[in-house]
Write a structure and sequence with these properties.
- The protein is about 70% helix and about 0% strand.
- By secondary structure, it is mainly α.
- The chain has one domain.
Length: about 220
């Protein structure tokens, strides 16, 4: 692209490689000597990390997967590190990380499902949108107990919300395109979950066990 610095293209590759770091695999091997791909759903994402390894590693994976997609976006928007360099839209690098997370080159393109990484790029770009969608995700999970349903509702809601903001408040075509791309990847990566939902065999994940215990009335 004319006028774009060669660094802009290099950063896309760096963002992809950063996104493709399988933190759930690495942390599981380091601290519990378990290959996450052999347990639970076999997926490298945050949900399976919680299921297989428990909360400490699960939260560490959540943090790392969120950070790796938002890091370059945050640096471009909030530091002078790239001043004077003509780059692509910041979210191009966020989406590249999501692609790396879902399709890591060194794991035969079999990675996570892109939920935490998609949240990370939005959190770095527009925290209010990200937190609104987090609330939608958590409410849906509380009502359904299905992370796959919550992820899908969150993905669809992100497209609706961002598109509405684009036309009604502040135009940002780059944000719309990045959101549609991320939502599309999330939905694509949940194909097996949708089949299990139809068959009634999808696993429920109780993220709100503590809240349930607090709200539960004594018998």
């Amino acid at each position: 692209m004319k006028g774009v610095s060669p660094l802009a293209y290099a950063l896309v590759v760096i963002a992809y490689l950063l996104g493709s770091i399988p933190f759930s695999l690495l942390l599981g091997l380091m601290f519990q000597d378990k290959d996450i791909r052999k347990f639970g759903s076999g997926n490298l994402g945050t949900t399976n990390a919680f299921r297989v390894f428990g909360k400490p590693i699960g939260f560490a994976v959540l943090f790392a997967d969120t950070l790796k997609s938002g890091l370059i976006v945050f640096l471009i928007l909030n530091t002078g590190l790239f001043d004077g360099v003509t780059l692509f839209h910041p979210l191009v690098y966020g989406v590249a990380s999501v692609v790396g997370h879902c399709f890591p080159v060194w794991l035969k393109f079999k990675g996570g499902k892109g939920v935490a990484t998609s949240f990370g790029l939005l959190l770095a770009y527009n925290p209010w949108i990200a937190l609104t969608l987090l609330a939608v995700f958590l409410l849906t999970e509380y009502l359904t107990r299905y992370v796959s349903v919550s992820s899908t509702v969150g993905a669809v809601s992100s497209v609706i919300l961002v598109t509405a903001l684009h036309f009604l408040w502040r135009p940002d075509l780059g944000l719309v395109i990045a959101t549609v791309a991320s939502a599309g990847i999330i939905i694509f990566r949940h194909r097996a979950n949708y089949r299990r939902l139809r068959a009634g065999t999808e696993n429920r994940v109780h993220l709100f066990d503590l809240l349930d215990r607090i709200l539960k009335k004594p018998s």
